Structures are given as structure tokens and as C-alpha cells.
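Lecture notes, part 5. Sequence design as translation. It can be helpful to think of inverse folding as translation between two languages: the language of shapes and the language of residues. The source text, in C-alpha cells, appears below.
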């Protein structure tokens, strides 16, 4: 018997979903456009990987960077409407978009494991979208402060900051060139805090806009 309390996705969740999907599209496409620009710049100058800056004069690279900025803004705005558990996994769709466009535009081979990984991203994202919970609404800035100063969050944030500093200043210089997981770890740890900030900052921004009206 279907749960009578289930009311489907709210209008805010739908807005967040649309913004998150738009973000994935822009960000996924931006990687391909930027790489196209980097390859074009490398053909006429010093590669960026060895210290060259000729890509800064390449319009394609700037188009890709602009697309990434637009995508990040859309992703940031999505957190104002939908819970993080809905928005964050949809970022994985940018991987699929990049993989498909790389195969079509850059002529890069997409192997069977890549296809399987893309399918897993689609299944996982779809499952989360269909079963995303309703998020408790934050009513005031004071409530945000109370949540941010809870012992559990303060301990977690302190632990993450310490781990990131150790990775950046000790492990990354020693092993970063041969083990990509150190940079992935830094990105993931910082991302876990930036998601929390993205949940709060849109609310504060909207509140300030409302007070100024």
C-alpha cells in the first residue's frame, strides 16, 4: 500500500533539480571546450603543463571557463531550493556529459568500463532524485549560527581543515605527481565543507534581498 504521506517532489525541489541539471551540462561541456582550447594553444606555443600561458590568448579556453562559471553559479543556486542529498549527486552527470562529448568532439575512446561507469552514475542519480527527502527549512540567520556552532559540526570542520592542510603541505608535494588520490582527497574534503556553505549562503543572500526590498 502506498504511503499516503508521500506527496512527490516539491516545486522548490524541481527548481533545484533543473538548476543542478543545467549546472552539470555547462560544467561537463566546459571541460571539453577548455581542453580543445588548450590543445589549440599548445600547437602554437608552450603547453600549459610545462609553464606556458598561451592558452590565455585562446578564445576557446575563455568560452570554456565562462561555461564553467555559469555552471558553478547554477549549482550554487540549486542549493537554495533543493537539499544537498539531491543536488550533490547530480554533479556526477557532468562526468557523463564530458565523457560523451570527449568521444564525439575530441575523438577519445570510451571503453566498456567507462560506459559502465556512466550507467552507474545515471542509475544512482535517478534513484536519489526519485527518493530525495524533504529538507527542513531554515527560518533565520540565528538558526544557521546555532547549527554551525554545534560540537559535532565544529569537530568535523576542524578535522577536515587539519587533514587538508596535512595533505597540501606534506603529502601532495611528495607524492602528488605519482598518486592522484591525494589531490582527489583534498578536493573531496574541501568540497564537503563547501556544500555546507552553499546551503547557507543562498539563504542569507535571499534573506538580505528580502530585507532590502
Amino acid at each position: 500500500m502506498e504511503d499516503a504521506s508521500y506527496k512527490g517532489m516539491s516545486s522548490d525541489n524541481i527548481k533545484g533539480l533543473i538548476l543542478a541539471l543545467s549546472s552539470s551540462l555547462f560544467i561537463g561541456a566546459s571541460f571539453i571546450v577548455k581542453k580543445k582550447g588548450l590543445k589549440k594553444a599548445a600547437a602554437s606555443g608552450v603547453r600549459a603543463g610545462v609553464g606556458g600561458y598561451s592558452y590565455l590568448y585562446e578564445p576557446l579556453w575563455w568560452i570554456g571557463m565562462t561555461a564553467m562559471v555559469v555552471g558553478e553559479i547554477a549549482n550554487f543556486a540549486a542549493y537554495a531550493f533543493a537539499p544537498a542529498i539531491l543536488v550533490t549527486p547530480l554533479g556526477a552527470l557532468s562526468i557523463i556529459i564530458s565523457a560523451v562529448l570527449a568521444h564525439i568532439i575530441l575523438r577519445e575512446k570510451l571503453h566498456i568500463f567507462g560506459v559502465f561507469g556512466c550507467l552507474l552514475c545515471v542509475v544512482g542519480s535517478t534513484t536519489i532524485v526519485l527518493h530525495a527527502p524533504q529538507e527542513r527549512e531554515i527560518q533565520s540567520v540565528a538558526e544557521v549560527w546555532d547549527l554551525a556552532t554545534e560540537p559535532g559540526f565544529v569537530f568535523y570542520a576542524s578535522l577536515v581543515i587539519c587533514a587538508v592542510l596535512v595533505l597540501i603541505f606534506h603529502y601532495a608535494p611528495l607524492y602528488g605527481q605519482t598518486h592522484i588520490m591525494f589531490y582527489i582527497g583534498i578536493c573531496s574534503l574541501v568540497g564537503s565543507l563547501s556544500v555546507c556553505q552553499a546551503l547557507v549562503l543562498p539563504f542569507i543572500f535571499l534573506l538580505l534581498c528580502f530585507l532590502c526590498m
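The translated text above is only one of many valid answers, since several sequences can fold into similar shapes. Residues 141-212 form one domain.
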